[in-house]
User: Fold this.
Amino acid sequence: MGAALTVRNAFRLRVWHAALMALAVALAVGLIRPGASWGSSSYDPAGDPYSMQNLTAADGVQAWRSAGVTGRGVDVALIDTGVAPVPALSGTGKIVNGPDLSLESQDPPLQHLDGNGHGTFMAGIIGGNDGRPGGYRGVAPGARILSVKVGDANGGVDVSQVIAAIDWVVQHRHEHGLNIRVINLSFGTNSSQPYVLDPLAFAAEQAWKKGVVVVAAAGNRGVGGGLADPAYDPWLISAGAVDTMGTPSLADDVPASFTAGAACGTCAAPTLLAPGMHLQGLRVPGSYIDVNNPGAALGDLYFRGSGTSESAAYVSGAVALLLQKYPRLTPDQVKQMLIAGAQPLPGASPLVQGSGELDLSTLLGAPGRLRDAGRGHGGPGGLEPATGRGSLQLSRGDDVLSLNGVELVGEKDIFGKPFRAALMAALEAAGHSWSGGRWNGSNWTGSSWSGSSWSGSSWSTLSWSGHSWSGSSWSGSSWSGSSWSGDAWSSFSW
Assistant:
């Protein structure tokens, strides 16, 4: 003990910190077998008013589950930072991996893995299920999660990746036994152009028109801050956050202080609010949020988080319940039902709370056939449809990637290829923006299905050679100098 250690034949290794965190995640989850114990934990969910079991008891969710409605048969596409195989998400068939479109997609140990922790947290809220009596249950524990990874361990992602991911989900929503009825976007930018022009809003709106319910986080800019993109597109379901005040009653609930509201009397307000304060979620040991927020850990298995990200995931789970019971509902009808069931919060402005707080209590026995809300231009209430002909750069807002000090800016995608908004919008409307594994002229992913995941690692040196952002050429797996200045993942705190 205390003796000097002589090291021979050693070398110094420089490791990108995000990759190191992802490695830590891989080691952590690799030591856990499904159904095995994960160390000791002093956390008691029954005594936590913000645990999933207590939150879902207050708003009617547990009543749906008691009636046998768990979201079974409904697939929810989670476009996020990936999903780690933690115990509550490791059941057979619980997670299906779509293509990995993230900056880590070329490193096999990092593919699909969630080195950030955000995506796993959202997946748990939507459909987590550890199978234990009294254990962790998401809102729709029977639903299946299709993970489309776009964010890396730092959360770094470009708007072009998110658009490509939405397009991929739309075009593959019924392939290989998939039944994707919901897209969860716990993501948002502060776009500086109207939704009718914005390319991200247009992609989300096209998914809606093709029968996929899109739930987007309202954002965390506070009252009067305006909704994030694409939540500000009024066709979609935008989810703001409510604080349940730690009680089992909805009567004293209030909008969370950070939840975004309409910036003006005629601007889009959130569709409704859902729990978004202090929620119990799933912990990914060694992930970015785990390392940087040690005080948020709830024992070994769980983590606490706040934000409209969490609210969007909660609503996505509720939508999965509705679609299991009433599978013929259109996206407009789903939105109509959620609005009809929402409970207005006394004293809260409609600009912040929208129709009120999510409440499924009165909807279990509601008729499954509703009048479609579409009219006028074909949208809810005659809303003007998006054209998608605006600027990709304006869609990014302040969320900018950089590689070795060179920022990805302008009308170009993650490969440096020109992004022609009008042409892309036409392809998206026709459902042809993806051709095999190609999107916007580059090979993004493999085009084959293998087992329960989309295989292929196509961001090869050949694909990247000759492309650049601004004089900084790319080569496969060259992300050691990347950085992320944005805050697009809509979690307020951990």
Remarks:
- The first strand starts at residue 75 and ends at 80.
- DSSP finds 13 helices and 21 strands in the chain.
